[in-house]
Design goal:
19% strand, eight-stranded parallel beta barrel, TIM Barrel
Length: 225
């Protein structure tokens, strides 16, 4: 199937469930993104700042760019003028830098806190206690140019569907608790970004509001040399 056909298939399936589709276009050429764009897709996810900035300058201006990978503090300034949502905020230090750069651009930048839910040694993500500690901190409460609109989690890379369901379910229960404790009156806290090409169906069943799908839309990525 073509990229356009894949986009239509996933948009029908995912958005029919009330879930936002993020087309993960990292490493993909602009021609592929344009094909997806012309099929109606507007939200694209990138994980490399330089690549995202280059694409943003050369592609249609109504594309909504999401930064989905690990973000280093010293790179925030490059995406602050245009990024719509930063998925992987995994420290107060990073949040403070996003706030600083957002203020310079007279913007409020939406962010998701990345929560560590996988049963494997990945490098990034806050554990449940750290999320609560961050949201209670005076430093966080003083930030005026960032808005936490939800949480993001990456499940274990496994074909064990039961394990995936448990991890996604734990994330949803935690999300609901955080909403109740810290964001009860804020309608903007509503996003639970979890699920990728291999596990998005289980993620949606467990309450995901955003799925990040790349290889199933654009095809596999070239092997790293």
């Amino acid at each position: 199937m073509s990229i356009a056909e894949n986009i239509k298939k996933y948009k029908n399936e995912v958005e029919g469930e009330g879930v936002t589709l993020i087309a993960v276009s990292k490493t993909k050429p602009k021609e592929d993104i344009l094909e997806a764009y012309e099929a109606g897709q507007r939200i694209f996810g990138e994980n490399q700042v330089q690549e995202m900035c280059e694409k943003q300058t050369e592609l249609p201006k109504d594309i909504r760019w999401h930064l989905i990978g690990h973000l280093q503090s010293n790179k925030v300034k490059y995406i602050a003028p245009f990024v719509e949502l930063i998925h992987g905020v995994d420290s107060l230090k990073l949040l403070q830098e996003i706030n600083k750069q957002a203020a310079k651009n007279n913007r409020i930048i939406d962010c998701l806190l990345q929560v560590y839910i996988a049963d494997e040694e990945t490098k990034f993500g806050l554990d449940f206690d750290e999320v609560i500690e961050l949201l209670r901190s005076e430093e966080y409460l003083s930030l005026k140019n960032v808005k936490i609109t939800g949480l993001m989690g990456i499940a274990t890379n496994t074909k064990n569907e039961k394990q995936l369901s448990i991890e996604f379910n734990e994330m949803k229960v935690f999300f609901d608790g955080i909403k109740l404790s810290f964001f009860r009156k804020e309608e903007t806290f509503k996003e639970l970004s979890m699920g990728m090409s291999a596990d998005y169906k289980i993620a949606i069943e467990e309450g995901s509001t955003m799925v990040r799908i790349g290889s199933s839309i654009f095809g596999g990525r070239p092997a790293k040399v």
